[in-house]
Amino acid sequence: MSNTPTPDAPGSGGPAHGPSGVAMTLLTPLHGRAHAAELLPGTAFRDPAAASVLAATGYRAPEVLTDRGNALGSVHRAIVFDELTAAFCREHPDAVVVSAGIGLDTRAERLAGALPATVTWLGVDVPDVVELRARLLPGDLTRVFPASITEPDWAQRLLPLVGERRNVLVLTEGVLMYLDPAGLRSFLVSCRTAFPAASWWRTTSTRGSPSAGCTRSSRRPGRGSVPAPAAAADRRPPRPAGRR
User: Fold this and answer.
1) Which one, of 39, 43, 16, lies nearest residue 29 by Cα?
2) Gap between the Cα atoms of 106 and 244, Å rounded
3) Is the N or C terminus of the chain more exposed, i.e. has fewer CB atoms within 10 Å?
4) DSSP for 168-214, written as a single string
């Protein structure tokens, strides 16, 4: 699962992608959101928090913009997921939004003024990414926990903050394609065991219209069961747009 900051590039004398050593899979979608107006002329989408975080990484633009299509795809994806999240939270003002493999996502900041203040934002990622996020986003509106989403108990750790609330939205945005079959199964079982009534949105493909790349699952498989179609769809997207 390649979701940790990259090591120093051989012979570079420093981090591969700026002083923060941020992995390309984190930088590309961050750059896309920060420059959405340039990548997608006419869009109303703006992400000032992403622009601030991007500047703080000390990134080098030529290294990030090696695939403009992926950066643009991350903007389309963010727009669709924002709409889905906003609709869910307006319907359920007490909602808990869980971003699995949150990376440098700034959705809570983007939607803060448009959603009820009663929405709870939670995130999970590996310790290196959580530490990086704390440095780059000190005013983070999301409470982020250090854990791999392939660990059997990752979702259980969030239950004290979820409490008795049943309106849980789990987002997996540009993440599941990095898991092997065993890791994917572990993630699904943990998620469904901890949040049996949750709605789950995930990206499956960046091909075609943006909305075609998102799939909803609200089924309640029994303990230990995995919805096979979902697993198959998420494992092999043709061109991943990177993590948030």
Assistant:
1) 39
2) 8
3) N
4) EEEEE-S-GGGS-HHHHHHHHHHHHHH-TT-EEEEE---SSSGGGGE
Residue 139 near residue 118, CB atoms below 8 Å? no
Tokens for 177?
């394609």
Q: Which residues contact 186 (CB under 8 A, 6 or more apart)?
A: 150, 151, 152
31 forms beta bridges with none
Total-model pTM: 0.77
| Secondary structure of residue 163 in the 3-state scheme | coil
**Cα–Cα distance between 146 and 177 in angstroms, integer?**
20
CA-only gyration radius of the chain, Å: 17
- Residue type for position 225: S
Residue among 45, 75, 46 nearest 213 (CA): 75
Are 143 and 161 in contact by the 8 Å Cβ rule? The answer is yes
Per-residue pLDDT 10s for the chain (244 aa) are 334 333 333 223 333 444 345 677 888 899 999 999 999 999 999 999 999 999 998 887 776 766 788 889 999 999 999 999 999 999 999 999 999 999 999 999 999 999 999 999 999 999 999 999 999 999 999 999 999 999 989 999 999 999 888 899 999 988 888 899 999 999 999 988 998 877 766 665 444 333 333 444 444 433 333 333 333 222 223 344 556 6
